[in-house]
Amino acid sequence: MTATEAGSLVLALLGAGVVAAGWGWTRAGRQIWPPISLVLVVAALAVAAPAHVTDETPTGIGVTLAVLLAVMGGGPVTGWVFAFIDRHDDPGQPSMRDAGTVLRGGAWIGALERLAIVGSLLAGWPSGVALALALKGLGRYPELRSQDNPGTAERFIIGTFTSVLWAAGCAGVVLLLT
Q1: What are the Cα distances from residue 91, in Å, to 94, 95, 113, 162?
Q2: Which helix (H) or strand (E) holds 112?
Q3: Which residues lie below 8 Å from residue 118, measured CB to CB, with a gap of 6+?
Q4: How far is CA 109 from the centre of its chain?
């Protein structure tokens, strides 16, 4: 496979990932489309890593697709991870699902977090990731300190790690292409 073909394949995988991420927001698509978008990102990383792509790859399109996929796809993937975890709750213990009611606005905060992370990484400013995470942690501190629901901190950490890894993976595809 030539470098140009590899670059085109990566762009196609990112585009398909954006479509899958969009369908992941639907009620019917919450179970099937997040893992598909995850597979598409991993495939794009696998193709981009050894590609040695030349300047012929349209990086503007790749950046746009990666940012869209990071912001749109992170919510369904994080929800998919939470659904997996919530299936394994002990019946007699407080549920992490209940902690979701304490952390209101998580979908919007997560989208902004992923935008800040992918933007920082693509701009070559990894310190921006630390800044975004520090702001998020400080903003959520009162809810995390509350002892009303012991699963709140765990849900915050799992959601944050999932979201950060997703955004970093999406940025990594573009960084491997350039």
Answers
A1: 8, 8, 32, 25
A2: helix 106-122
A3: 66, 67, 70, 71, 167, 168, 170, 171
A4: 12
Under a CB-based contact definition with an 8 Å cutoff, are residues 14 and 174 in contact?
Answer: no
Q: Domains in the chain: how many in total?
A: 1
Q: In angstroms, what CA-CA distances link 118 with 58, 133, 157?
A: 18, 13, 19
* Range list of β-strands (E), the chain: none
Along the 178 residues of the chain, how does pLDDT read in single tens digits?
A: 787 888 889 999 999 999 999 999 998 998 999 999 999 999 999 998 886 665 555 678 989 999 999 999 999 999 899 888 877 666 655 555 555 555 666 778 889 999 999 999 999 999 999 999 998 878 777 766 766 666 777 888 888 999 999 999 999 998 888 7
What global pTM score does this model have?
Answer: 0.84
Is residue 19 a contact partner of residue 9, using CB atoms and an 8 Å limit? no
Domain with 160, as residue range(s), is 3-177
Per the structure block, which two tokens stand in for 128? 């921006």
